[in-house]
Structures are given as C-alpha cells and as structure tokens.
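4.2 Preliminary Data

To establish feasibility before requesting continued support, the project team ran the inverse folding procedure on a target of 378 residues. The structure was first converted into the token representation described in Section 3, and no sequence information of any kind was made available to the design step. The complete token record follows.
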C-alpha cells in the first residue's frame, strides 16, 4: 500500500532504500514502481513503467501556482537504438515498447546485411508515434547529428554492426561524440561473451576492440558507458540460417533434423527476451565503466535441445541424428552472470525447456515471417 504523502529528492531515495516492500526510482523522466519483492522475485514483469499521470495521487506533484488538478507531466523517455532491425535489436525494441509504456524508441539502422525490417512488422501500427525508424549509417557523423537534433534522448543502446556482422572498432566513436555533443550521457554497448575467446582478425576480436574503445571514450569524456556481453541467444526473429531455428524449421517442413555428420556441443543459451531485460537493467542502473556478462543458469547440450524440439512437436525421437563424430568442445569460456544478478537484480525467466518450447511455438505460428527468408536464400 502506498503512503499518504511522499517526500521528494534525496529524502525519497532514503525512504526507498529502507522500504522492504516497494521502491521508486526518481532520477529519470519517468517513475518506476515495483510491486512487493516477494512477487517481483518470481515475476520480472510485475515491474511496471508508469507515467506520472498514471500513478497514485500521492505521487503526482503539483506545479507551483497551478490549479490543484493540474499535473507536472514530463515527456516520456526516448531511447536511441542503433541496429534495431537485427535479431536482438528488434527484440529489444519490442520488449521496451511492450513492457515500458509510454517510453519511445528511435531506431537507426542502415538496413543492410543481417538487418531485416520485417522483424518489426506491425510495430508502427501498434505503437504509433512511440516508435520511429530512420535509415542511416551510425558511422556517418552528419547523419547521426541529424538524428540527435530531432529529439532529446535519455540513452543510446548500440547493437550496430557492419554488413558482415562485424562491430568495427571505430563504430562507437562518432556515435558517442555526437551523443556527447547533444547532452546524452548514457551509452550501452551491446556485445557478446564470444569476445573472450576471439582470435585476432575475427569478427569477435573486432567487437572486443569496439567494446574497449567505448569504455575508453567514456573515461576520457565523462560519459556513462556500460558494456553488456551475452552468451549465445535464441528466440523469435532469429534468421533461419542459425542453428536452432534451422533445426526447428527442418522438423516443421518434414526434412532431416540436421546433417548426420554435424558435431554437437554444450552451450550456455540465453533467451533473447532475457537478454533484452538485462540490457534494459544495465541501461537504467548499470555502473558506468562496468562490463556485465549475461548467462543462463546452466549449459544445455545440443542433443538435449533437439530432444525438446521433437518432444514439443510430437515427433519420434528416432529423428535424432546418430552420433557420428565426437562432440565439439564446449562453446566459449564459461562466464558468470553473478555481477548483473546481484547489482541489478536480473534473473533469466526462460531457462531450459521453457525457452525452447516458446521458441518452437513462435516458429510454428510464424511461417509467414521465415518462409520468405528461405526463398531469398534459395
């Protein structure tokens, strides 16, 4: 139950720290209300983003000299998302718009390479002016400057890569400089745990260099830079050529599950929505200069993933490929997400079979999204 009246500023912050049942964040252009912790521990989406006019009357500050019923209504927070038409970027945009209204998103994407505008089909119609797409190259300072001149942004969340999927080391520089010029202090560089094992010259080696550049730039210019590094993702809108959706689509089309000679391995899978929740938490509350690794509770062997696909679709286990070759080593150096779990209270919701089943169901229901992509590859 909310109190009769609330103090403001630092006094409110101190009260928040001492409250065992609810909390309010007051340093953003919106207020964040959390339900009782015992419920929030099991339901991440019980955390609601509310505009001031939607809150309890005790949370509605009156403007000085205004009539008692007139409210101060700051504009909703707007995020600039780069590379938002890719797999993870598009899921992040949908996640923010769905769970954190009335916040707004500007998506800047070059619409080349792995970008797929169909990943965001229906978003403009559903969310109206809360979402906008601008085609542009984030490495072009003039184009980026025009984007920043259009709105005031709370933060930049950078998913951008080049057409080959490489995050060039120079990519964050122009983007961060223009953001600084326009007063945007918060910058989230979205990366991968694969950078820890990257060989020189590889795509992930370049991504690691981009991460370091972003952090160095933040230290030099006083910008709040946070880096997130996730284990491999899966979930809706992942392109059919990737291993997991390829296996699901093969079963749906009655084809062999996978190549009999393919080698399997254990992987730390992270559902894309869990990844999006972690990035959003890091954007809001991450400590500047920190790197947050994002991993699931436990690894899953590829063979167990395939079993879950077949079981959910009611297919016989005889479709599993025989063991023709020894397993590949576990993919990547094991990472620990303890930092983000403790500091930001993030926890994955789609672990193991639950996430695989949800993903299979999405591909089963959305043939209209992936079948055209198969035709373009043919």
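Position-by-position output of the design step:
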């Amino acid at each position: 139950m909310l109190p009769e009246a609330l103090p403001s500023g630092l006094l409110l912050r101190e009260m928040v720290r001492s409250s065992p049942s609810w909390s309010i964040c007051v340093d953003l252009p919106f207020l964040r209300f959390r339900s009782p912790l015992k419920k929030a521990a099991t339901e991440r989406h019980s955390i609601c983003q509310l505009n001031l006019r939607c809150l309890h009357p005790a949370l509605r500050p009156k403007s000085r000299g205004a009539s008692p019923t007139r409210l101060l209504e700051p504009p909703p927070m707007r995020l600039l998302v780069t590379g938002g038409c890719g797999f993870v970027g598009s899921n992040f945009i949908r996640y923010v718009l769905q769970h954190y209204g009335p916040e707004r998103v500007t998506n800047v994407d070059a619409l080349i390479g792995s970008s797929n505008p169909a990943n965001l089909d229906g978003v403009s119609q559903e969310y109206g002016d809360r979402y906008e797409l601008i085609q542009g190259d984030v490495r072009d300072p003039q184009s980026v400057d025009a984007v920043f001149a259009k709105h005031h942004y709370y933060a930049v969340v950078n998913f951008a890569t080049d057409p080959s999927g490489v995050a060039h080391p120079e990519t964050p520089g122009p983007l961060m400089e223009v953001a600084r010029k326009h007063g945007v202090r918060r910058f989230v560089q979205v990366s991968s745990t694969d950078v820890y094992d990257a060989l020189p010259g590889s795509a992930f080696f370049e991504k690691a260099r981009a991460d370091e550049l972003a952090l160095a730039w933040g230290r030099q210019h006083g910008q709040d830079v946070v880096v997130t590094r996730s284990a491999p993702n899966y979930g809706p809108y992942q392109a059919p050529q990737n291993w997991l959706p390829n296996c699901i689509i093969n079963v749906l089309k009655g084809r062999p599950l996978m190549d009999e000679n393919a080698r399997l391995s254990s992987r730390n899978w992270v559902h894309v929505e869990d990844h999006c929740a972690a990035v959003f938490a890091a954007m809001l509350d991450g400590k500047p200069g920190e790197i947050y690794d994002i991993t699931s509770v436990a690894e899953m062997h590829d063979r167990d993933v395939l079993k879950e696909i077949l079981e959910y679709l009611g297919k016989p286990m005889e479709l599993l490929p025989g063991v023709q070759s020894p397993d590949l080593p576990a993919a990547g150096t094991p990472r620990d997400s303890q930092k983000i779990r403790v500091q930001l209270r993030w926890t994955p919701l789609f672990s193991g079979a639950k996430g695989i089943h949800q993903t299979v169901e999405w591909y089963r229901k959305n043939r209209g999204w992936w079948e055209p992509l198969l035709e373009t590859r043919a």
